[in-house]
Amino acid sequence: MASQIPDKIDTLFINCHVATMTGNALSIIEKTALGVTGKTISWIGKEKNLPDALKIRCQKVIDCQNGWILPGFVDCHTHLIWGGSRSNEFEMRLAGATYEEISKKGGGIFSTVQATRKASKDELFISAAKRVAALLSQGVTSLEVKSGYGLNLETELKLLEVIGQLDKTFPLHIQATFLGAHTLPQEFAGDSDGYIDLVTKTMLPAVKDQKIAKAVDVFCERIAFTLAQTKKVFQTAKDLGLKVKLHAEQLSDSNGAALASEFSALSCDHLEYLSLSGAQKMAEHNVIAVLLPGAFYFLKQTQKPPVQILKDLKIPMAVATDLNPGSSPVHSMTLILNMACVLFDMTCEQALLGSTINGAKALGLEQSKGSIEKSKDADLVIWDIDTPADLCYLAGFTPIKMVMIEGMIHNNNFN
Ligand code: NIG
Ligand code: FE
Q1: Would 253 be classed as within a structural domain?
Q2: Is residue 340 left, alpha or beta, with left meaning phi > 0 and alpha meaning psi from -120 to 50?
Q3: Is residue 26 in some structural domain?
Q4: Atom 11 in ligand 1: which residue has the minimum CA distance?
Q5: Gap between the Cα atoms of 253 and 289, Å rounded
Q6: Domain that holds residue 31
Q7: Domain holding 33: CATH number?
Q8: What is the pLDDT of residue 2?
Q9: Ligand 1 atom closest to Cα of 292?
């Protein structure tokens, strides 16, 4: 499977094996040569098929020492900008309190909101940058970050601006999602419709005007917003030309997945309580299922998402860290892969597809990210592993030899 010959190659990787993640499978090519020209992949095939004429037109040749090249991870669901800490709530939960109880007493998301409102842009940038750096060091090359710990116009915009700043500072592709409808701020206690009016009439138009987010998310749940309120937000987002996605059926079945599907959502995320009819709607509207085993694990949930139904209905499954201070303070994609297999019964292949091409689909990035194909962005990680399954099996171990993002080399550990 040699491809057409490019005029020149800037970086040629040899002595490697590649899992391309094409065709809904690992799609392994052993003893591969992979060429990168500019920011994209320009040649991929068996090393023995590499034309001699091309070999001499390579600027730089990297011997991968029999390593594996996979697409960089696409972490398609995070809330990694926040102020303060919730380690006290972690200890409360260890002593027996539940996530919902803590939330009802004014803790939970709202305690992070208070700390986030107080934090300056610089403080938020500095703490979030450490989290982005941790994910990059784990092989993440594309990342979604949500707002949602501001819950007023000023702080929501501040969070989205920090996301933009992170995108400019780091080599990763960082995509912002507006999650103004994350939970009800205390100043709107007893008036959740009033808050939804603020989201739809003031925040969403500002987000649209400033072109500061790609998509709009809502937490549809009994401790957050109702189905009718979610619909209002989605309708406004749609009218403004913004994509939608949903925190759906995380703690109960609120019928969110069916509603999100009717709005052609990019993804429905969490889905522990997803019903068969909700899943059928997702299949009908090509909605990606984003599974978040970190939150399931950290909240000690027992109801698993219906992975078998998702498989039977051929709904693409993505997996992501959900990195956030309350329900998933997990800074490791490989640990998440292990959890996806052990807790959600996914195969290693499904977990790896979930963290690459299906993560890219959940962000609408599948034309350029998530798999190794000619003309796609050269977002690649070279791993010192024996087989791709090691990334799921060796929980939290990240033997990275090199990361390349859009043709540029980062984290070069070759000696
Ligand atoms: O994905 N479910 C809502 N949002 C986050 C939790 C955020 C928090 O507890 O701070 C989640 O689990
Ligand atoms: Fe989340």
Answers
A1: yes
A2: alpha
A3: yes
A4: 327
A5: 15
A6: 9-71+371-412
A7: 2.30.40.10
A8: 47
A9: 1
